[in-house]
Amino acid sequence: MKLAAIDIGSNAARMQISTVLTVDGVVSFKKVEYVRFPLRLGHDVFTHGGLTTESVQRTVKLMQAYKLLMELHEVEAYMACATSAMREATNGREVVDLVRSRSGIDIQVIDGQREAELINNVVVLALDDRQTLHIDVGGGSTELNLYCNRQKITSRSFKLGSVRLLEGKETKGAWKKMQDWINENVDRSKPVTAVGTGGNISKLFNLVSKTSDTTTTLAEIIRMHDYIAEFSLEDRINKLRLNADRADVIVPAAEIYISVMQWAGATEITVPDLGLKDGILQLVYEQLT
């Protein structure tokens, strides 16, 4: 059985098709297809309030391509979710209707709380008993989730993301609200560790020195942020070999991870290979069975 998850973010849209495997009663998902395309919807929405005609057309074409890929793979069930940019777009509902009529794909525009829940459902599998702050930085928003003994204590979504920062369109007072939330909820008398998800932290993790297969330090994230920031955008693409849609957002994204870790007093961060698409896949499987 094959399932698919489509994640339409503020920077890129991703589709993953996975085969469901069951061994000794334990279900897992094996990736058989993964496509990422830089739609950059957040550029339009955070600057102008809505999606341009060009962006709408690109979104429709991409969803048509995703639909064909799902048909070729004989996918049995899928879910498509759109996050910050689409939910803030003044013409978001019209785009959803157009995509449905042109491709047959039904996009669910989810709020920050629902986005965090879907990610948390899979991230919790990577946690231990320590106080843990999960940081998920997207193009348009950042979700923070606090855990203790693998149980979620509290969470909050902030209108602060890599694309939003790049465009200079962060919500007024967002940094202060995030810092205040951390000060109010993180118990500084106990050790705290961080878990990071999102495309930018995954890329940063690939570049830094590691303390284990899935863990690195705050000092390493800061070092890599400072190193990349020294390069021009052109050199990040040509010398560091970063994709164009990653080269411009990786520095502002790193600033969010660094700030949150410093405010929380976390000196290490674990970066599991998990994200919204994995949470969507799990939900699709649960609904199907």
Automatic annotation (TrEMBL):
Domain Ppx/GppA phosphatase N-terminal intervals: 29-281
MF (Gene Ontology): pyrophosphatase activity
SUPFAM superfamilies linked to this entry: Actin-like ATPase domain (SSF53067)
Database matches in InterPro entries: ATPase_NBD, GppA/Ppx_hydrolase, Ppx_GppA_N
Protein name (database record): Ppx/GppA phosphatase
